[in-house]
Amino acid sequence: MSLLVGRSVRRSVLTIATEDHNIPTVGSIEPIVDPVSRAQVEALRANAPEFGVPPLGDADQGVVHIIGPQLGLTQPGMTVVCGDSHTSTHGAFGALAFGIGTSEVEHVLAT
């Protein structure tokens, strides 16, 4: 449950967490140099298990609009939302998909 507002992830089984654009594409075993990206990744790695969200942290898993279709996570008829402007590309697989802002992510997770 969130320490800030008391909300939890309502449907953690339907939620995935990926480090997306914050991880380097080369030298991925090296520490993340950018302090903002590093902080975001560290927060995700700590928060995902706390909220029961399965993390996708494999070396072959990264950018969400690639791994969703690649891993079969994006399916026809699904609603897919993500804090990424390219999320609408999941629509090519028959999903209703759109990007949302950071403040909207909290509300999606809570409902």
Characteristic terms for this protein:
single chain; 111 residues; alpha/beta; Aconitase, domain 3; two-stranded parallel ribbon; two-stranded parallel sheet; 11% strand; globular; lyase; amino-acid biosynthesis
Task: Write down how many β-strands occur, each being a DSSP E stretch of 2 or more residues.
Answer: 4
Q: What characterizes the major β-sheet?
A: 2 strands, parallel
Determine the CATH superfamily. Answer: Aconitase, domain 3
Topology pattern, helix = H, strand = E: EHEHEEH
Q: What is the CATH architecture annotation? A: 2-Layer Sandwich
Q: Could you say which structural class the secondary elements and strand pairing correspond to?
A: alpha/beta
**CATH classification class:** Alpha Beta
Q: Counting H and I runs of at least 4 residues, what is the number of helices?
A: 3
Radius of gyration: 14 Å
**What is the share of helical residues?**
25-40%
User: What is the strand arrangement across the widest sheet?
Assistant: 1-2
Strand content: 5-15%
CATH topology: Aconitase, domain 3
Estimate nothing, just give the exact number of structural domains: 1
